[in-house]
Design the sequence.
């Protein structure tokens, strides 16, 4: 597949939103000078104030997507394309064009990030409070006012501010560290919070409570959130819109309701059916046969074709373009309509009976 | 590059050319003896060797050590003349007379003969010292770590005590007391308390290993303690032990030659340290013309320790999860333990 | 927690006690036992045979004819009072000899160990910073080469070149023979001049190991997520280099530093011999050669106590310095 193909494909109306805060155009990440891509010319837009959930297996490129939003691809990866950020005041910048200093300001002040594994995100030999202070100082913010805000954030997250700020990371539990990290990400009042598997290392109960807290935060501070996870049911509880990644590309984007109940991509439907559900009879649980491809052997044509029950010759030859299915629902599949008919969703779809979370591929 | 293949670092832990060091400890009992042997060979001999060989430092280290074994073979087969006084003109320089390529000493002894005929004993000594240190350390470390409780406490107290005795002075006293001539015994005496520090760090590693599921499984299945230690625990620390065997061996080289040089160890045998001592006390310090007399044994010593260190470094790189985690992006906090240990091997 | 400190301190005394006992036993292991040599020596000096035992008892605070347990008690109680008897070969109180020797040894070991760590940390962090560069490869090779050279080889070569051949530096001793032993500029200069070669030889070989350790630690720290997060948070490179990378990479080396100080004391047995540097190690070896058991045992004990105290300080302070480690460690949990 080529960049051009995707470029044109992705600028369809399906992908535009009314008031985007970030528009990703043809973002591609390569580690070998363009031979293979670990983020394969992805375009998407993120609506101001929404919670966008991005779902994908391990190794589907979803972390690359998250890193791209801050132009923070780990070395020696190279990111190309455009990441357009629309400020509050109506001006627009391309994140990839920012100078080092501008980028330093942009990160954390405009777009901030929470990584998976809070334990490894804190300096083990520095107190939590030190992390807050140095961040404020590095951005020339008012430290005492900033720390006051930090305390408020920590309280919002049901933490005891004084105790947490005066603790070393290892003195806190995993859930506390994760919440402290979220507070640290919000200390400079960013517009967008990107979260890459923020709850992966936590137990189910803690995952739930963090999700609730995130919803509250989003409301209180009017945040735009990008929530990246492998756990479809988990993000389905939280997200306004959802996107599915497979083999380094976005394959389906839709409102939550649409994506859960009426998805058009065979992979999304298979993913939904592979999700453990306490109530689902065992024989209906369908693991997805085969493995997702590594970057060096993404097949020509549709990358899901080798595992797809509906794959035809067309799929193996031609990479499906991202096309609009319904309003606000886009999918990259030649047989989206067929998929809806031929792949039945096994769970009983009520208004709020999203399958129980806890789908673990790890 | 870590993020190219996996989003989840946990899945990368088995990286490192795919060697699974846990082996087949809990595999089913129905495998035949032959299959098991073949598997053991595959898992503990062939694969590690391939991994080790892939590192250029290990390769060079092995070549150097192989060369010393070759020299030892030359000595054992008697392919080079025995050293004796007045067998050649005095103070021949390096390559001055190709019959005596490494030159001769003040007493007209062939330096090459001195070096060559010292090699077998030195290799024996180095091996026995290394085996002794690592063997005791593995025994004490695994038993204390796995058994824990009062057994563990007693063993660790003993290690602490042994660690507290200064090695070199103790060895000197023992050497004078026992006057050991046997190179194997000598190796053991030199590393008489080397095992303690190593045993301590093995102990703390075993403390975490014993909490692993498969060890717990073996325990609930009623497998005997020695068997669990041998089958489930030891394979896990083998890489670490191998690396430290090399370091213990290097310590023997340094210490023994130092002590021969001081004249603490018996002079009767040929040894590079003795040669060095004779050169030193025989006036080689005062004139350039005898410089080679000092230089030749030094090069022999340094060569062997370079070989050992390259081997250790290379294997460390292959085995050590701390170095490997750079790729995996996940870290274990064994750092303190490791440092303590490398620290001690730096004494000489 | 305080319980741990009490136990740890008690263990120091227990260990010192045990080592003192061991030294007592070791003397009796040695060929001929502790007194044969002394007897012969006294007889040669013309002391009447009937008085020999009394003289020995006077010199060593031990009555050679008393039962072993009595000898042991006498020995232990005099050691506890800092009384190590009188040196046989030098005819001076052992405590006096040691008091004069210790400062020289401590000076050389302390300075060389600090230099070794300073250079090692500096080189290692540069290597990690430029990981994979030509500089890194060259210095990794150099580090391995340095690790492979025993310090006594460096000592002999530097003595050969700088002292004997070029005559830049003195060949032996702690200060010049003509210099008054008082605190003055000439004295300090002379002391410095005499210590250069011992310190140099004892430092050089150790740099390699420390550089490799620092390099490995730094590379590991650099690969940690918290460094990446710190960059994203916009922290200055300088702060990341010092507060994040250096701090987390150096801290694990702290215990090694204190342990090495102790261990390197025993290495002076060889070092000081080569430079005829009259420190602890020099006297230990001299005593060993002269069968001067009181002096030998005292030097042995002093080195041991230094070692034990080093480990003790390391254990107690590490948890204060590195917040990740809790005092007592996991070792004692079971």
Sequence:
């Amino acid at each position: 597949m080529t960049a051009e193909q995707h470029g044109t494909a992705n600028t369809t109306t399906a992908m535009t939103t009314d008031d985007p805060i970030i528009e990703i155009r043809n973002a591609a990440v390569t580690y070998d000078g363009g031979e293979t891509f670990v983020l394969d010319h992805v375009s998407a837009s993120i609506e101001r104030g929404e919670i966008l959930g991005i779902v994908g297996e391990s190794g589907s490129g979803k972390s690359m997507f998250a890193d791209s939003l801050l132009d923070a691809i780990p070395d020696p990866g190279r990111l190309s394309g455009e990441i357009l950020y629309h400020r509050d005041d109506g001006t627009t910048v391309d994140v990839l064009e920012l100078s080092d200093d501008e980028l330093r300001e942009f990160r954390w002040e405009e777009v901030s990030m929470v990584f998976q594994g809070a334990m490894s995100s804190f300096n083990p030999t520095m107190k939590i409070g030190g992390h807050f202070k140095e961040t404020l100082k590095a951005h020339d913010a008012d430290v005492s006012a900033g720390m006051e805000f930090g305390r408020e954030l920590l309280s919002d997250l049901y933490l005891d501010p004084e105790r947490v700020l005066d603790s070393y990371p290892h003195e806190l539990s995993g859930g506390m560290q994760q919440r402290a990290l979220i507070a640290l990400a919000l200390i400079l009042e960013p517009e967008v919070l990107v979260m890459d598997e923020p709850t992966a290392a936590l137990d189910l109960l803690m995952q739930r409570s963090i999700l609730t807290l995130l919803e509250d935060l989003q409301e209180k501070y009017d945040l735009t959130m990008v929530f990246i996870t492998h756990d479809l049911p988990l993000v389905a509880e939280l997200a306004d819109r959802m996107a599915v990644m497979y083999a380094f590309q976005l394959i389906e984007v839709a409102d939550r309701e649409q994506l859960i109940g009426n998805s058009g991509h065979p992979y999304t439907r298979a993913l939904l059916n592979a999700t453990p559900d306490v109530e689902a009879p065992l024989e209906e649980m369908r693991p997805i046969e085969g493995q997702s491809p590594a970057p060096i052997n993404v097949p020509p044509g549709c990358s899901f074709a080798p595992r797809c029950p509906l794959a035809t010759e067309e799929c193996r030859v031609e990479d499906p373009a991202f096309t609009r299915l319904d309003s606000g629902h886009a999918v990259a599949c030649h047989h989206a309509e067929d998929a809806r008919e031929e792949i039945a969703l096994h769970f009983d779809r009520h208004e709020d009976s999203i399958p129980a979370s806890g789908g673990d591929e790890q | 590059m870590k993020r190219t293949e996996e989003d989840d670092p946990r899945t990368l832990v088995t990286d490192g050319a795919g060697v699974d060091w846990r082996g087949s400890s809990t595999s089913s009992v129905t495998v035949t003896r032959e299959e098991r042997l073949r598997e053991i060979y595959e898992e503990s001999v062939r694969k590690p060797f391939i991994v080790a060989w892939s590192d250029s430092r290990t390769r060079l280290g092995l070549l150097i050590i192989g060369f010393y074994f070759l020299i030892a073979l030359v000595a054992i087969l008697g392919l080079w003349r025995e050293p004796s006084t007045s067998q050649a003109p005095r103070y021949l320089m390096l390559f001055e007379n190709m019959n005596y390529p490494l030159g001769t000493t003040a007493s007209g002894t062939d330096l090459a003969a001195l070096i060559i005929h010292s090699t077998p004993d030195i290799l024996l000594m180095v091996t026995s010292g290394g085996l002794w240190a690592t063997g005791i350390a593995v025994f004490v470390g695994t038993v204390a770590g796995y058994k824990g409780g009062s057994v563990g406490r007693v063993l660790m107290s003993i290690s602490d005590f042994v660690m507290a005795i200064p090695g070199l002075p103790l060895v000197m006293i023992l050497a004078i007391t026992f006057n050991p001539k046997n190179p194997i015994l000598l190796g053991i005496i030199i590393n008489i308390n080397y095992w303690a520090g190593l045993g301590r760090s093995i102990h703390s590693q075993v403390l975490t290993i014993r909490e692993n599921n498969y060890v717990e499984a073996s325990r609930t299945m009623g497998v005997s303690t020695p068997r669990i230690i041998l089958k489930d625990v030891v394979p896990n620390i083998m890489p670490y032990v191998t690396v430290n065997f090399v370091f213990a061996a290097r310590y023997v080289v340094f210490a023994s030659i130092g002590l021969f040089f001081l004249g603490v160890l018996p002079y009767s045998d040929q040894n590079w340290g003795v040669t060095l001592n004779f050169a030193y006390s025989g006036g080689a310090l005062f004139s350039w013309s005898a410089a080679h007399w000092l230089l030749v044994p030094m090069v022999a010593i340094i060569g062997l320790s370079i070989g050992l260190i390259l081997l250790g470094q290379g294997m460390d790189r292959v085995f050590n999860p701390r170095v490997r985690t750079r790729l995996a992006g996940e870290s274990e906090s064994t750092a303190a333990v490791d440092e303590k240990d490398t620290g001690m091997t730096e004494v000489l | 927690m305080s319980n741990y400190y009490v136990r740890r301190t008690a263990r120091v005394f227990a260990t010192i006690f045990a080592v003192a006992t061991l030294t007592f036993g070791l003397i009796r292991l040695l060929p001929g036992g502790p007194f044969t040599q002394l007897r012969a020596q006294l007889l040669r000096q013309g002391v009447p045979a009937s008085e020999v035992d009394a003289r020995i008892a006077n010199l060593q605070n031990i009555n050679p004819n008393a039962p072993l347990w009595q000898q042991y008690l006498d020995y232990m109680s005099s050691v506890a009072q800092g009384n190590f008897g009188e040196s046989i070969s030098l005819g001076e109180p052992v405590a006096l000899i040691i008091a004069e020797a210790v400062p020289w040894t401590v000076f050389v070991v302390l300075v060389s160990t600090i230099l070794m760590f300073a250079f090692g940390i500096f080189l290692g962090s540069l290597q990690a910073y430029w990981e994979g560069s030509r500089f890194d490869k060259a210095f990794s090779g150099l580090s391995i080469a340095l690790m492979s050279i025993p310090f006594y080889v460096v000592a002999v070569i530097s003595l050969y070149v700088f002292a004997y051949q070029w005559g830049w530096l003195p060949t032996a001793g702690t200060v010049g023979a003509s210099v008054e032993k008082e605190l003055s500029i000439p004295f300090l200069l002379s002391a410095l001049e005499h210590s250069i070669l011992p310190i140099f030889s004892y430092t050089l070989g150790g740099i390699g190991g420390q550089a490799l350790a620092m390099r490995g630690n730094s590379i590991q720290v650099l690969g940690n997520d918290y460094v990446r997060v710190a960059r994203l948070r916009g922290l200055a490179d300088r702060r990341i280099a010092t507060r994040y990378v250096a701090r987390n990479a150096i801290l694990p080396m702290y215990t090694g530093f204190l342990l090495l100080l102790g261990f390197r004391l025993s290495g002076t047995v060889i070092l000081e011999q080569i430079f005829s540097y009259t420190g602890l190690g020099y006297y230990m070896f001299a005593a060993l050669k002269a069968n001067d058991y009181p002096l030998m045992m005292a030097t042995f004990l002093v080195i041991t106590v230094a070692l034990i105290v080093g480990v003790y300080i390391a254990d107690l302070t590490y948890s204060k310095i590195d917040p990740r480690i809790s005092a007592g460690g996991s070792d004692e949990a079971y």
Chain B has one domain: 42-316.
